[in-house]
Design goal:
- Helices cover 36% and strands 21% of the residues.
- It has 610 residues and is an alpha+beta fold.
- The strands form 6 sheets. The chain has a 7-stranded antiparallel β-sheet, with helices on both faces.
């Protein structure tokens, strides 16, 4: 998920169309390393977000406003002084560098026309927003970089602005075949690493995409590449170059198992491509899409898919909002995960120990037989003998019985019966204990599955309540019980049937035993922790096959089997699902059911927003 030079080229293309000619109406600095510019155009106001945050540098158009501090920072005040009501004359990118130049003309205090440049550098921890004068001198920057911080370039007022050359990379937009081949062959690395290491603006995922399009294994060393491989790689680079120069971009996000993993300004055929878009080359020659165009998605046979957007700005806003949501929930659930994991590890160790102890009790039947045979044949044992050979009348075979020579045969028999009784009682006690521990393990694994699918803080609140009621979290005081607002996922099948998915065990019980009626259909991953899925039958005598398959895909996706090629799903009418007395939340039994094996891919199933 690199904000590479090709992504910047896509952003610059959009900004030129939307902002050039507009006037800077408002300049705000809502965060320490962030600017929000409001630009007036005849078509309406546009907002441009510029962020130089080290962990998440960004530049994109947005419809969202952000509150600003009551007292504007000095950098913001300087920009207002010089650029307020200025007109944007051009927006450019030097080569495929991760740099954007925003050219602004304005009138100074004397009424003379002046030109200034706002430089946005999207370079990870080195990101910056730099304000330069007519002659390229730095007037100020959102981050000051002194010689003590960087020996390559100072970013301070009064210093000349220039792009620091930290890597000897070629320009992908102008390199000829000879230079291309020389650059790759000079790097004894896998082909995709040599690509992004040799050319400016190419990220690792884009390098892998180029190798994929060229039918060259990305991990193959450059020393093993043949002439035809180099030629196909260069042709793929030329197609990418043409798409960039002609501004034929196709912003898309790649998903795996329902989670965003990469984005790119060009088609990511390595993750599958959208039906109807044709080949990557056809997609790149199809021209611009409308910013208001609906997203489209496609998938490959593995379940990976791409979602295409009408603009890179819309993609970036959605992508990072989704990533931030997942990251935030992951952080908020860390304490709960720790509680579950600790309890799970403790119970698994206990269960393994109990199984070994049960294994040790398997000798008890041998001791019982020894005792019985000694009572039968003990009269033939000589005093002080260390063993007795007798016929095992259960099998007809001879058996050698070890004896304590200091005890009589009758006393040896009594000793064996005592051992048998002790091991029998231990086995009976362990059978009950292992069943209880196994139930605890299943319960904890189901809670772990609930944490994996939690999307909102209210989802976590319900899981915490379950852990508290189960005794894994100590209840603090007698405060007011927190109101639970989390609701099950709600989907609609392609045939119009409503499908509901429980997010945790409490919701599973609610769905199955309070919400569902007898003729509704119930789905669950076979012998795997996961959600209950209920399909409302709506008085239909039979559900369409497609609805059965979509409900089963939901049950597979919202289970611990997510990501497997196929997950076995049990399904049955709700009236056949029972809850044993005293069973833990989410635990049910059923004795007759249908089954199907299906991928855990829910692409294309309509989710109803809550």
């Amino acid at each position: 998920m690199a904000f590479d030079g090709v992504t910047i080229a896509n952003v610059v293309s959009e900004l030129k169309r939307e902002l050039v000619g507009g006037r800077l109406y408002k300049i705000a600095q809502p965060e320490t390393d962030e600017l929000l510019l409001t630009i007036k155009q005849p078509s309406g106001q546009k907002r441009l977000l510029l962020s130089a945050e080290a962990s998440l540098p960004l530049i994109y158009l947005t419809d969202n406003n952000k509150p600003s501090p009551l007292t504007a920072p000095s950098f913001c005040m300087l920009l207002r002084k010089h650029l307020q009501n200025g007109r944007i004359t051009d927006i450019t990118q030097p080569g495929l560098e991760r740099i954007v130049h925003i050219q602004v003309e304005h009138l100074d205090e004397m009424g003379d026309l002046r030109h200034k440049t706002l430089v946005v550098e999207i370079m990870g921890k080195h990101s910056n927003i730099i304000f330069c004068g007519d002659d390229g001198t730095i007037l100020d920057s959102i981050k000051h970089v002194s010689a003590a911080v960087s020996s390559l370039r100072e970013v301070l007022p009064g210093k000349p602005y220039f792009v620091a050359r930290t890597q000897d990379k070629l320009d992908a937009l102008s390199t000829d075949y000879a230079a291309f081949r020389d650059a790759l062959s000079a790097r004894p690395q896998p082909a995709f690493k040599a690509l992004y290491g040799s050319f400016t603006g190419i990220s690792p995922i884009l390098a892998q995409e180029l190798c994929f399009e060229a039918r060259v294994e990305g991990e193959r060393p450059t020393a093993a590449l043949e002439d035809a491989d180099y030629e196909r790689l260069y042709e793929a680079l030329c197609r990418m170059r043409a798409a960039i120069k002609e501004e034929r971009f196709t912003p898309n996000i790649a998903y795996e198992n329902g989670r965003p993993v990469e984005f790119c300004a060009l088609p990511l055929t390595i993750y599958g491509w959208t039906p109807g878009q044709g080949s990557p080359d056809q997609a790149r020659t199809s021209g611009h899409t409308s910013p208001n165009q609906d997203r489209t998605s496609g998938k490959d046979s593995s379940g990976a898919c791409t979602v295409t957007y009408g603009s890179m700005s819309a993609l970036l806003e959605h992508y990072y909002a989704e990533k931030n949501t997942l990251t935030r929930i992951r952080q908020r659930s860390a304490d709960l995960r720790r509680v579950v994991q600790t309890a799970l590890e403790r119970n698994v160790k206990k269960y393994d120990l109990q199984l070994r102890q049960i294994q040790d009790t398997q000798k008890r039947e041998t001791y019982r037989i020894y005792g019985e045979l000694l009572n039968t044949y003990g009269y033939s044992a000589r005093p002080g003998a260390k063993s007795l050979e007798a016929v095992n009348y259960y099998t007809g075979e001879n058996i050698v019985i070890p004896l304590d020579p200091t005890l009589s045969a009758t006393e040896n028999a009594k000793k064996y019966f005592e051992r048998y009784g002790k091991l029998k009682r231990t086995a009976e006690a362990l059978a009950t204990l292992t069943e209880e521990v196994k139930e605890q393990i299943n319960h904890l694994e189901s809670i772990s599955a609930s944490l994996d699918i939690a999307l909102h803080e209210e989802d976590l609140a319900q899981i915490k309540e379950e852990l508290t009621q189960s005794g894994y979290i100590r209840k603090k005081g007698h405060g007011k019980k927190q109101k639970i607002t989390s609701k099950p996922f709600h989907y609609i099948s392609s045939d119009g049937f409503h499908m509901y998915v429980g997010k945790n065990n409490f919701q599973n019980d609610e769905l199955t035993f309070k919400f569902a009626t007898g003729n509704d259909w119930w789905f669950h991953a076979k012998q795997i922790p996961g959600s209950h899925v209920v399909v409302k039958a709506e008085n239909a005598e039979e559900l369409p096959d497609r609805t059965f398959e979509e409900a089963a895909r939901l049950a597979a996706y919202y289970s611990k089997g997510r990501g497997q090629e196929k997950v076995e799903i049990d399904y049955i009418q709700k009236k056949h699902v029972k809850k044993p007395s005293g069973a833990r939340p989410g635990f049910v039994v059923y004795y007759t059911n249908y089954s199907m094996a299906i991928p855990s891919d829910i692409t294309g199933i309509q989710l109803v927003e809550q």
